[in-house]
Design a protein that fits this description.
Layout (H helix, E strand, L loop, with lengths): L8 E5 L4 H17 L2 E7 L19 H26 L4 E6 L4 H8 L5 E5 L15 H4 L6 E4 L10 E5 L4 H9 L1 H4 L4 E7 L8 H10 L4 E6 L6 H11 L4 E5 L13 H9 L3 E5 L1
Parallel strand pairs: 1-2, 1-4, 2-3, 4-5, 6-7, 6-9, 7-8, 9-10
Antiparallel strand pairs: 5-10
Helix pairs in contact: 1-2, 8-9
Amino acid sequence: MADPHTFSAILVQADRTDGAEARAALAADLADRFGGKLIGAAAAQPYIPVYAPFGESFIALQPEVLQTAREQGERDLSAAEARFRAGAGGHEATWRQSLTTDCAGFMADLTRGADLVVVGRPGASDKDTALGLYASDLVMTAGRPVLVTPPGVTRLSAARMVMGWKDTREARRAALDALPFFKRAEEVFIVTAGADADETGAAEVAAWLTGHGVTARAVNEKSTEANVADTILAVAARVNADLVVAGAFGHSRMREWAFGGVTRALLTRAPCAVLFSH
């Protein structure tokens, strides 16, 4: 019987940036620690310029244009795989790629065969417009926990963890999805913040985790609603945590502007890794 408290397959998004190597190294380390297989993936749907000559209502596509776009996509994918393999080191890994699907759609499809998805939050100079992916494109569609890693981070100790708690379906889902991490942590802090911080059941969550053998305690922090994300990150810094867990709140459109304020802030500026569930 499969162990529900582990990650048997970890899917990591690859691209052509230096950050992709760090991301693959982090995912490979997690695969080693959890005894899971590692899957690297990238998609490069070719950009095909189209035009309608002389104002006609048809679109002209020259065969050589299609071939050039495809060849460029293949080069991009080859570069992404090289970055992934370099970061993964000697870890045995599976590689998946697509030339017919956009990156977000391809990764979402592949989550059916994974327990955890690892994507990066690129730095200011670490963009890949051909193969890149907004983390927010996956958080709401994956149906799996999505680990968003900051630039350059190659390892996640997850010895001390913070969970931003609000008594919602998304947060309850996140607590369950993070259980493999929680069970291996030295200490977990269930943080509530805002005007009703002491009325959201954080102590019950800590007690539930204790029943799973986790050392956990509730931390109630008073703050304004506008400062909840800052409060969660401040607690993480205070206890030296390198992983924050949060439920993702937002709408069906997949860009940062569509998310609730706390989710958006954690997505865009958390200095540590964040595990999101929806």
